[in-house]
Automatic annotation (TrEMBL):
InterPro entries: ArgE/DapE, Bact_exopeptidase_dim_dom, Peptidase_M20, Peptidase_M20_dimer, Peptidase_M20A. The keyword Cytoplasm does not apply. Its cofactor is Zn(2+); Co(2+). SUPFAM superfamilies: Bacterial exopeptidase dimerisation domain, Zn-dependent exopeptidases. One of its GO terms (molecular function) is hydrolase activity. This is Acetylornithine deacetylase/succinyl-diaminopimelate desuccinylase. It comes from Brevibacillus borstelensis AK1. Belongs to the peptidase M20A family. Transmembrane segments: none annotated.
Amino acid sequence: MTDWNRLVIEEIDKRQDELIELCSRLIQFPSENPPGDSRPISKFIIDYLKQEGIDTAIHESGETMWNLISTIGSPSPDRHLLYCGHTDVVPAGDLSRWDVPPYSGLVKDGFIHGRGATDMKGGLAGLIFVTGLFARLGVPLAGNLSLFIVPDEETGGDLGVPWVLDRGLIAGTAAVIAEPSHPQNPTIGQKGSCWFEFTVEGTPGHGSLAPLNGESAILKAARAIQALQKLWELKPDIPAEVQDIINISKEFALVRNPGKDVSAVHDHVTINIGTISGGTKVNVVADRCTVQVDTRVPFGLDYRDVLAEAKRLLLEEGIDVELKPFGFQGNANWTSDSEDIVRLLVESITDVSQKEAYGVLQWASSDARHFRKHGIPVLQYGPSELAGIHSFNERVPVDQVIQAAKVYALTALKYLGTTNANK
């Protein structure tokens, strides 16, 4: 009987140059969202899988938005693992501020460089490569493994994971998302989100007479922004069942960010003023100013209560405006570390790295919340250089891309099993 665990890991080692080349090729597609055209990179992935004998179903959620589903293995009523990743990346921004062209996919000094390298084409390459490798080797999986690739995550994800799950186009018993994480610490839960915007009205006037003439909407918005900082003071009623994982995550944050203690984000509302747009001309008192706010909500608070508190704080400042929710809206959520998929992935990290591994919470949001909404246990694990996410000079360590691919492979083999395995 074949020891598939050993064989697959050996094959990944032998073919690691192919894996790194695949990652580089994925980065070379400028799949920025916005504007959000996934067709070129999707066609590349479809052709890659076809060469391995794998068919892909295309589900168009928009003219340029392709959701891809490719399934291998054997149908099972209780074992269907979803490998999930997104093809879209945030815009590269000012190209002059990149040391390496953002869509070069350059492999140099132990890193693969470019926009999306960490978020999340390094992990996506691992999922695609492992799925193709299973097919190439004829691994007799005892359940289904579905590669589930979505085009829309960076702008809220409405046309990606939830679009597919809500329509019943795929169902699974567990999922692994290749979002970036620490190499020893997958993320098994996340804070909630409450994004909103508001527009403050003012009275225009000649700029030479300010502040004696007119009422500046920008100054009113500044007062509103300052008032909203008090959202940090909201006290969550943290459920007992998540207190331990919050404590573990706070300790992890201290270790991961030496010299910069960000651990308090796990039990506080964070407030980021993302954009401000106001005024018509430098010598005109601004008659209107729009502010967009990103708050992240801890366990023990409802995102709607955060919105209500924001409204109260503004009224306290004498600012009566409509708060318009948009983008991410939802409460904190997690997958228990007692779930098979969590236990087996953590175990696989230890097997590959020979180091301790354990799950932690993240302070951002992702597609994981949609899987949990549908009752699918899910966690996130992927290669990363976390400092470069959404920034200039993004890159991903080559060794982490290889480690992640091995972890994906072992997790699938352990979770699904094989029909003739002794491991």
